[in-house]
Each structure stands twice: as structure tokens, then as C-alpha cells.
Write a structure and sequence with these properties.
alpha/beta; binds S-adenosylmethionine; single chain; 228 residues
């Protein structure tokens, strides 16, 4: 094993990036129109993903309560967690101080079913699992906040995606992106980690402007946008 391969092995294990043959994982793509690259990867085994996504040790660096507090949700507001995976944030949001209506959107049918069952088991009536698609969220209504954790780098054609997403944000709605910093432990290979300037540049082309930048997460950038 070369040093580069050893590094990649450590990196992918950090956030449940299971090692599968490249053909099954799909290709890493450079989208048309000059978007930053995106990483294609299937997350079709929720039980396996849950071991890392919902590992209590994650709370130490993910700080979910602090992230949710920083979103400044008001009573009666709604949130869409896009790329919700096994529901780490969707469930925490639903149980949070303002108990918002939470749409948990994922492209993987197995993840959508998993979150639906998890919410049912926990007796949460404010979580709605939504089957998303590669080019749209399929949100049934506009929301106050869209939260996207460790998923931005998986989305293809992001300028088109976020341009369309504006239709599903309420007039003063916000878009919060949390994703891995270059060099931080866990997460995707470095080529799929972007600086705040890169993300803001891409989102500017989709019509968003940076409203807040939180620097308390040790491994991730945490950026909040509003429509220009
Ligand atoms: C690294 S996981 C992050 C899960 C979760 N946000 C968390 O922090 O635990 C990325 C998730 O995004 C989902 N995903 C990838 N592309 C997506 C898309 N276009 N729309 C919705 N979900 C997507 C994957 O299926 C996976 O569940």
C-alpha cells in the first residue's frame, strides 16, 4: 500500500465512506459550467452508515446542539436537512428547543425509510422523510432554513441545484452549509473539500450571499447564506 492509499483509507473510514470498487461508487465528476468537482458515492446501507454517522464520539467535534443553536430558529419555523443520512441532525433538530417541522431529504431510498422509521420509533411527529433526487429536493413546501451537512461535496451541478432551491426557501430563508475543511480528520478526499471562498463563489452564482460564518467547528466550515 502506498502512503497516498494509506491516507485515503484513514480518511474514508472517518465518516462512513465504505470502500467499494470504483465502478460501484460511480465517477467523481466535474460538472458542466465550471462548478467545483463533486464526489459520487452511494450510501445505501443505513445500518453500516449509522455506526459512524450516529457514533456518540462524533458529538465531540460535530457539536450538534451548538450548530442548531447557531441557526437561531424561531418557534413555528421549519427546516430541511438535505442529505439527512440516518437522521443525525434531522432528529436532533426535531427534538430541539423550538421543535421545528423537519424535512429529512435524502437521495437514497434506504436512508429515507430509515429516518422515517427512526422518527416513528422515537414518537416524533414533526419529522417528514422526503425522497430527494439528484437535481431537486422534492420538498413539498418552502422552509425557513435549509441545512446541508457533509453533503455539499456530493451534489452535482450545484449552481443549478441551488438556483432551483431558492423556490423552496421562504422570503427571509437561510441556507446553512457544514462541510469538511481541508486537512481535517475524517470525511472525503481533499479534492472534495472546499474553502469558504470557493463555496461562496459557487453559491453567489446561484444567487446567494454569505450572512454568517461560524468558526467553532474544529473539522468543518459552517457557512450561512441568504438570497441576494
Ligand atoms: C456523508 S452523508 C451525511 C449524512 C448526514 N448529513 C450527517 O451529517 O450525518 C451524505 C448523505 O447525502 C446523501 N445525498 C447525496 N447526494 C444527495 C442528493 N442529491 N440529494 C439528497 N441527498 C443526497 C447521501 O445519500 C448521504 O445520506
Amino acid at each position: 500500500m502506498t502512503k497516498r492509499h494509506a491516507f485515503f483509507l484513514v480518511a474514508v473510514i472517518g465518516l462512513g465512506y465504505s470502500l467499494r470498487p470504483q465502478a460501484q461508487q460511480g465517477q467523481h465528476g466535474q460538472a458542466p459550467g465550471g462548478d467545483l468537482p463533486h464526489m459520487e458515492h452511494r450510501f445505501d446501507n443505513p445500518e453500516v452508515s449509522a455506526k459512524s454517522f450516529d457514533d456518540p464520539a462524533r458529538d465531540v467535534w460535530q457539536m450538534p446542539a451548538r450548530v442548531i443553536a447557531a441557526l437561531n430558529l424561531r418557534s413555528g419555523q421549519s427546516v430541511a436537512d438535505i442529505g439527512s443520512g440516518t437522521g443525525y441532525f434531522a432528529i436532533a433538530l426535531a427534538k430541539g428547543p423550538t421543535a421545528p417541522r423537519v424535512y429529512a431529504v435524502d437521495i437514497e431510498p434506504a436512508m429515507v425509510a430509515y429516518v422515517r422509521q427512526r422518527a416513528e420509533k422515537e414518537g416524533l411527529t414533526n419529522v417528514f422523510a422526503v425522497q430527494g433526487a439528484g437535481d431537486r429536493t422534492n420538498l413539498p413546501e418552502s422552509v425557513d432554513v435549509v441545512l446541508i451537512v457533509d453533503t455539499y461535496h456530493h451534489l452535482p451541478n450545484r449552481v443549478a441545484y441551488f438556483t432551483a432551491l431558492k423556490q423552496r426557501l421562504k422570503p427571509s430563508g437561510r441556507l446553512a452549509i457544514v462541510d469538511f475543511r481541508k486537512g481535517a480528520p475524517g470525511g472525503p478526499p481533499d479534492e472534495f473539500r472546499f474553502t469558504p471562498e470557493q463555496i461562496s463563489g459557487e453559491l453567489a452564482r446561484a444567487g446567494f450571499t454569505l450572512q454568517a460564518q461560524h468558526d467553532f467547528l474544529p473539522r468543518q466550515v459552517f457557512l450561512v447564506y441568504q438570497v441576494k
